[in-house]
Automatic annotation (TrEMBL):
Species of the source: Forsythia ovata
One Pfam family cited in the UniProt record for this chain: GMC_oxred_C
Family named by the database record: Belongs to the GMC oxidoreductase family.
Superkingdom, taxonomy of origin: Eukaryota
Protein name (Swiss-Prot/TrEMBL): Glucose-methanol-choline (GMC) oxidoreductase family protein
Length: 573
């Protein structure tokens, strides 16, 4: 007999679903009046610019705003504006957009070949419109290892922070997590700071005091309106290269289509400093290079793509920092909170938390919905709409009080494990195939285990007493969490006896995936694509490791940082 989930399991499923919805999408409350922002349908068939930026995301927006000060810039975004949606304006209505799986949704779901459900941005502002909002800088060692100019890095962070970073209010759940971390030895306490410091701290957030999200799109307020054109729903299909008469292929234009499917071409003006810059993210940038003929020749030929440059490293080195969490039902009310407190351990694991009074925000529960849960346990031929509808109906019948609680999660640094990205077809709007190979390297798995041990200690700490039920032991919490539909991986019985197995069975994404166009392999230290001219990649696809506990601050900083450096080169002649 096929037994359904218990009421507690349904609670856990809903709560797990809700927390990732809570890490979800919110629009800024008011729309800046950007005179330079237009629908791509209004663009001419042919146009010319000093710089063409592909991708108006977390790096592309600050980059475009900076370059527009002394150049004529085109920013092409495949999605729409994050402003003005009447249904999603603040932190309290977090579920609507991630639940939207339509082609026009700002969130595009994908499932890695590992079986982990994830999402990529399809909106101006990029991942800063989809994430949990935590804002924290990279560690000093990271900056030094990458070879960035520390002074310009700090100036660039400050430039970002003036528009989008805030100090969060710390209430009961987050306070208990903070105090619990300190009680179990994640010391010292560093208070509120944007800096990456060992110990426990309160980080920044891109949500203001009213609970309104501020995204990388807000950094376009810095732009010179006469130097920038932003086109929305502009889907770039390929980068154009000149090959004849050139020592090396030279990028000189792009082909993009508007929302009606009409083709447009944008070219670089003549000039030795003019460039195309790819800022389409860790999935989009390697995908676009391949679609344009720069990548592994065997893969390109398999899709009938003309090879411009045989570059075997494009799409390699894909990594995603695995996240594992334990849900803790609370007997007492908890605040609605996103990631605010972080414990930075000395063994390479970061401890964070989030909470909510009512995680069940809508009929579809987003990335960790009952639908996904069904997929993880039901054979493919039996995945019927009726079965999924029953799961949703059962969840909606639960009392609101059972959704009260929160998560304590850990994310490992790095990671050391890597995978690869491959094309599925030639459509730039489709997701490529990506494999991250979570926990392939033993050190990654050990960091997860050590992080979970800290979480267990926090749950059992004096500071956390009021937020846990005495009769729910740690093994029960672990097994309940493991039985929830958090990925498509096979489940194992009684994972509480093996934290290694718990890590593998309950792996999730925290959306910090990166790689595919790494420095030293695909681009040089100035982010110029190796082997071709007039083309750079500036975004998280260039990272070998994820910076700090959460990367968005550094990705925004990088856009500003490289914009300043490119303009300096331009003005120096």
């Amino acid at each position: 007999m096929n037994r359904g989930p218990s009421s507690f399991q349904r609670l856990l499923i809903a709560a797990l679903s809700g927390i990732l919805l809570f890490n979800g999408f919110c629009f800024s409350q008011t729309a800046p009046k950007y005179s330079f922002m237009h629908q791509a349908t209004s663009a001419p068939a042919l146009s010319y610019f000093d710089y063409i930026i592909i991708g108006g995301g977390t790096a592309g927006c600050p980059l475009a705003a900076t370059l527009s000060q002394n150049a004529i810039v085109l920013l092409l975004e495949r999605g729409g504006s994050p402003y003005g949606n009447p249904n999603i304006t603040n932190l309290g209505s977090f579920g609507q957009t991630l639940s939207d799986l339509s082609p026009s949704s700002p969130s595009q779901r994908f499932i890695s070949e590992d079986g982990v459900i994830s999402a990529r941005a399809r909106v101006l502002g990029g991942g800063s419109c989809l994430n949990a909002g935590f804002y924290t800088r990279a560690e000093s060692r990271y900056v030094n290892d990458v070879g960035w100019d520390g002074r310009l890095v700090n100036e660039s962070y400050g430039w970002v922070e003036k528009k989008v970073a805030f100090e969060p209010p710390i209430k009961q759940w987050q306070s208990a997590v903070r105090d619990g971390l300190l009680e179990v030895g994640v010391n010292p306490y560093n208070g509120f700071t944007y800096d990456h410091l060992p110990g426990t701290k309160v980080g920044g957030t891109i949500f203001d005091v009213d609970g309104h999200r501020h995204t990388a799109a807000d950094l376009l307020q810095y732009a010179n309106p006469s130097g920038l054109t932003v086109l929305l729903h502009a889907s770039v299909h390929k980068i154009l290269f000149r090959v004849k008469g050139k020592k090396r292929p030279t990028a000189h234009g792009v082909v993009f289509r508007d929302a009606l499917g009409k083709k447009h071409r944008a070219y670089l003006k003549s000039g030795p400093k003019n460039e195309i810059i790819l800022s389409a993210g860790a999935l989009g940038s390697p995908q676009m290079l391949m679609l344009s003929g720069v990548g592994p020749s065997d893969q390109l030929k398999a899709h009938n793509i003309t090879v411009v440059l045989d570059q075997s490293f494009v799409g390699q080195g894909m990594s995603d920092n695995p996240m594992n969490a334990i849900f803790v039902p609370s007997p007492n009310p908890v605040e609605v909170s996103l990631i605010q407190v972080v414990g930075i351990t000395n063994f390479g694991s970061y401890i964070e938390a989030a909470s909510g009074e009512n995680f069940a925000g809508g009929a579809d529960y987003g990335m960790l919905s009952p639908k996904i849960g069904q997929l993880s346990t039901v054979p493919p031929k039996q995945r019927t709409p009726e079965a999924l509808a029953k799961a949703i109906e059962a969840m909606e019948a639960l009392e609101p009080a059972v959704f009260r609680g929160g998560f304590i999660l850990e994310k490992i640094m790095g990671p050391l494990s890597t995978g690869h990205l491959e094309l599925k077809n030639k459509n730039p709007n489709d997701n490529p195939s990506v494999t991250f190979n979570y926990f392939k390297e033993p050190e990654d798995l050990q960091r997860c285990v050590n992080g979970l041990k800290i979480i267990e200690s926090v749950i059992e700490s004096k500071a956390f007493t009021q937020f846990r039920y005495d009769y729910l032991s740690l093994p029960v919490l672990l097994n309940m969490t493991a039985n929830a539909p958090i990925n498509l991986l096979p489940k194992h019985a009684n994972v509480s006896t093996s934290l290694e197995q718990f890590c593998k069975d309950t792996v999730m994404t925290i959306w910090h995936y990166h790689g595919g166009c790494q420095v030293g392999r695909v681009v040089d230290r100035d982010y110029r694509v190796l082997g071709v001219d007039a083309l750079r990649v500036i975004d998280g696809s260039t990272f070998k490791f994820s910076p700090g506990t959460n990367p968005q601050a550094t990705v925004m900083m990088l856009g500003r940082y490289m914009g300043v450096r490119i303009l300096r080169e331009r003005l120096q002649g």
